[in-house]
Design goal:
CATH architecture: Beta Barrel
CATH topology: Porin
Strand content: over 45%
Low-confidence stretches: 1-18, 201-211
Mean pLDDT: 89
Largest sheet: 16 strands, antiparallel
Number of strands: 24
Oligomer: single chain
Order of helices and strands: HEEEEEEEEHEEEEEEEEEEEEEEEE
Radius of gyration: 21 Å
Helix content: under 10%
Distance between the termini: 22 Å
Number of helices: 2
Structural class: mainly beta
CATH class: Mainly Beta
Number of domains: 1
Strand order of the largest sheet: 1-2-3-6-7-8-11-12-13-14-15-20-21-22-23-24
Length: about 425
């Protein structure tokens, strides 16, 4: 069973999210966690909101794990998980009014990383490749908020919170696209390098290698529209994003690939009960296709030519989509995913004014959810048949003006638990 933690979500935190009015204090959080890939581990993280500008967020952390016994080249060795992470988001660039810059990067070593090289819909959970190696990435995001509707007067997306709810937002959400809400266009750069210390394979057009390195770099182009009342925890409205990713095969990239994706979220504000502050029905749909993927050729044994890496493209499983399944359990040329969540914020909050808690906990949210999805080698109606399903429960809280969630999901391959930052639709 994979158990992720507070910090593992920070590694993939969506830095383009709208910000709330920021605290001037540093938040320092030690943490411990255990996963199949890292073993028992811990670290310390620091979060600074409003650094240099009110809408920015800085996150930094170092982490490490206890030694684990692994086998490399038929020799038993002891290796430990370790690394560091740095992220800085939503810096308004000089001499601009609505252009924002974000970056995040990590350097890490995993003693027992897990890859599903065959992630097709009919693949078996036991057909997994275990390896040790490095995983490093560095991503940037240049986002331009169009001078339309909310983006005209508030391009920073600054909200004022009271008890974990955005104030002065009555009437916002559910308006006409582009006439209301906030619309952004953007350019992202990405670079990631993953190595394996236990792979032995014959590369199709090159010499044999025992330690292949899967590098990818490229650009993402996107259009995003947020028409909700509060993006960190919406109660009404909708949000969509169209994104195209392309690795051009330049530099040290293993091979070129591309992927086109579309995401749509919808929120319905429901009547409350005597014991709740807010009830919301949240729906999400995500789909995508890789035009470049060539299943008739291989760049390595079991790795198709011009396919996205295992952590990119059309993939399901992990802390956001099909949460009962292992991270990146399924992957193929085409993907379809849909989910529904019933979210209720309780009036009861035993930690509201607890002096022993170093950060503010504004509310607790109980969530029931169901998910379905499928990957396929063609984009057709077969995506809607023989789908994978799971159901789950979640306990969430608004901690230091950020949603934190503990999800438990069950599917046909078992159960998984995840502790993450942000609502699952935010990725």
């Amino acid at each position: 069973m994979w158990i992720a933690t507070f910090f593992s979500s920070t590694l993939l935190y969506a830095t383009e999210n709208t910000n709330v009015t920021k605290s001037k204090d540093w938040i320092v959080l030690p943490y411990v966690f255990s996963t199949d890939s890292t073993g028992f581990s811990g670290g310390i993280g620091a979060i600074k909101q409003g650094l240099l500008q009110p809408q920015t967020t800085l996150v930094a952390s170092v982490f490490g794990g206890i030694p684990q016994k692994i086998t490399i080249d038929s020799l038993e060795k002891e290796k430990s998980f370790y690394g560091g992470f740095l992220s800085f988001s939503n810096l308004k660039l000089p001499y601009t009014n609505r252009t924002f810059f974000s970056f995040m990067g990590i350097k890490s070593y995993f003693p027992k990383e897990i890859y599903y090289l065959d992630g097709s819909n009919n693949s078996k959970q036991k057909d997994v490749f275990n390896t040790s190696g490095n995983s490093d990435f560095f991503n940037t995001n240049f986002r331009y908020v169009l001078p339309l509707a909310e983006g005209l007067d508030n391009p920073e997306g600054l909200y004022t919170l009271h008890d974990g709810f955005a104030v002065n937002r009555k009437g916002y959400g559910n308006g006409s696209p582009f006439v209301t809400g906030r619309t952004s266009i953007g350019l992202k750069t990405f670079y990631q390098s993953n190595t394996s210390e236990t792979w032995t394979s014959q590369q199709s057009d090159q010499t044999s290698t025992n330690t292949p390195q899967w590098n990818t770099n490229g650009l993402r182009f996107y259009l995003e529209h947020d028409n909700t009342d509060f993006d960190l925890n919406p109660s009404r409205g909708y949000h969509f994003m169209l994104q195209y990713s392309n690795d051009f095969g330049k530099g040290d990239s293993l091979q070129s690939w591309n992927f086109l994706s579309f995401k749509y979220n919808k929120y319905f504000n429901l009547d409350t009960f005597s014991f709740t502050k807010q009830n919301v029905l949240a729906l999400s749909l995500w789909t995508g296709y890789s035009f470049s993927w060539d299943s008739n050729k291989e760049v390595f044994q079991d790795i198709d030519a011009h396919r996205p890496p295992l952590w990119e493209g059309g993939r399901l499983g992990g802390f956001n989509r099909l949460r009962a399944y292992d991270n990146n359990r399924f992957s193929d040329k085409a993907v379809f995913y849909a989910t529904a969540e019933y979210r209720t914020i309780l009036k009861y909050n035993p930690l509201k004014h607890n002096a022993l808690i170093p950060v503010a906990i504004d509310w607790f949210q109980v969530v029931a959810f169901a998910e379905m999805g499928r990957v396929h080698d063609h984009y057709d109606f077969d995506l809607l048949s023989d789908m994978k399903y799971d159901i789950g429960l979640s306990l969430r809280a608004m901690v230091a003006q950020l949603p934190v969630r503990f999800d438990v999901a069950y599917g046909e391959e078992g159960a998984n638990m995840w502790v993450m930052i942000n609502q699952p639709f935010d990725f």
